[in-house]
Amino acid sequence: MRAVERIAAILRSFSMSQPMLSLTEVARAADLDKNTARRLLMALAAEGLVRRDESERCWGLGIGVLKLQPAVLGMRALRETAAPFLQWLTERSGMTSFFWIKDPEGAICIDRVRAPGEFQDVFWSTPGTVLPMNVASGPRVVLAHLDDEARAAWLSRPQPRFSSATQTNPDELRRAAARIRAQGHELTLNDYYVGMAGLGVPVMDRSGAFVGAISITASTTKLATADSQQALLAVLREASVAIGVRLGPDPGLPQP
């Protein structure tokens, strides 16, 4: 069990913002001594799960990790169901679209369709990216639709701040969650990355159960007016309904 915990800690030490780490950085992040970290990294490299960049003397995840993704059944079913509608959403809105579901560490992006012509120098969430649920429209919709116990547990954690617009107060987040549920969508401006905005809505299956959230993201200027927000919200809701009606109790349909 201890070996599994150590390996998991090493794999989790890499992130989108820090994809390559030195041995010292891996050891620190995984709370291991350098000899143990080196030994485990070499064993993971032999299996293709990590790789070593000899020129930079650092480590990163290997392509073997990517090969595991198709075996994640629940996520695959949701992605295959939602994929054509995310593509349609991006084409209709001209914005990058995302699908989010709950995760123990926040909200995880399970699919994304990048809009052509978007060249902002930002870290775009990709499948597998986990964001805290106090920022970005999709994750905040997920937070709003947790059950009361799960939401209270999340709000008991320290909430990270990314900009001056980031909401971190638990009481404010609790009120925001109630507002999101009531209005059925969320608009965020500059809270995760200054200059970027997002609009998100929930996806419900045919029984009315919450499955996840879809969202679109672009520069704040593209979501600056009420007219543009309402037009995009209509497109989002159309995509959400189209995904939801394909998710339900029928055994032949993908299950969330």
Strand order of the largest sheet: 6-5-4-9-8-7
Overall helicity: 40-55%
Task: Look at the helices and sheets and give the structural class.
Answer: alpha+beta
- Stretches where pLDDT is under 50 for at least 5 consecutive residues are 250-256
- Beta-strand content: 15-25%
Number of strands: 9
Provide mean pLDDT, rounded. Answer: 88
Q: Give the CA-based shape.
A: globular
Rounded to the nearest angstrom, the distance between the terminal CA atoms is 30 Å
Largest sheet: 6 strands, antiparallel
How many DSSP helices? 9
Output the helix-strand order.
HEHHEEHHEEEHHHEEEH
Please compute the radius of gyration using only Cα atoms.
Answer: 20 Å
What does this protein structure show overall?
The chain has 256 residues and is of the alpha+beta class. The chain contains nine helices and nine strands. A hairpin with a 4-residue loop joins strand 2 and strand 3. Helix 2 packs across helix 3. The longest helix has 21 residues.
Short description:
The protein is α+β, with helices and mostly antiparallel strands and 256 residues long.
Throw out a few tags for this protein.
three-stranded antiparallel beta sheet; 9 strands; disordered C terminus; 256 residues; six-stranded antiparallel beta sheet; alpha+beta; globular
